[in-house]
Write a structure and sequence with these properties.
Largest sheet: 5 strands, antiparallel
Shape: globular
Number of helices: 3
Distance between the termini: 49 Å
Strand order of the largest sheet: 2-1-5-4-3
Radius of gyration: 15 Å
Number of strands: 5
Order of helices and strands: HEEHEEEH
């Protein structure tokens, strides 16, 4: 079983996905910012599909926090969001205050192993904050 992946010297954060993609039945993984931008994606996940996943996951995480808050009457801190479908499992965990690590796996995945590895990889990001760089053509304010 994989543990932590080594960080490359570049700012690319896709290194965190490699141990997830080595797990049996894991089909895709991505690292996304809380505002819906792709920070890293598995090789077989096209940029277009990854951007759709990032946008929808941002909305899903917001809905999960809001729903939890509606039940509890207070703020919600998500530890993990899980969606089960006939096609498989989507599991997302926070990766710092502004990002999320997500994997999609076939229905026969060992959920305990997947969840543990997602949390390990999120922890491997350490204190490094996952954010989107500013747009190059953004107009000054």
């Amino acid at each position: 079983m994989s543990t932590f992946a080594r960080r490359p010297p570049a700012d690319d954060q896709s290194w965190v996905l490699a141990p997830l993609l080595e797990l049996p039945h894991v089909q895709h993984a991505a690292l996304v910012s809380s505002d819906g931008f792709v920070q890293g994606r598995s090789p077989d996940l096209s940029r277009h599909r990854a951007e759709g996943v990032a946008a929808m996951l941002s909305a899903l995480q917001g809905a999960a926090r809001s729903t939890t808050s509606a039940f509890t009457g207070g703020p919600a801190e998500l530890r993990q969001t899980v969606v089960e479908s006939a096609e498989g499992w989507l599991v997302a965990v926070p990766a710092g205050p502004h990002a999320c690590l997500v994997a999609f796996a076939a229905p026969d995945i060992n959920m305990g192993v997947l969840s543990r590895q997602l949390h390990r990889q999120a922890a491997a990001l350490g204190v490094q904050e996952v954010t989107c760089p500013p747009r190059r053509n953004a107009a000054p304010r």
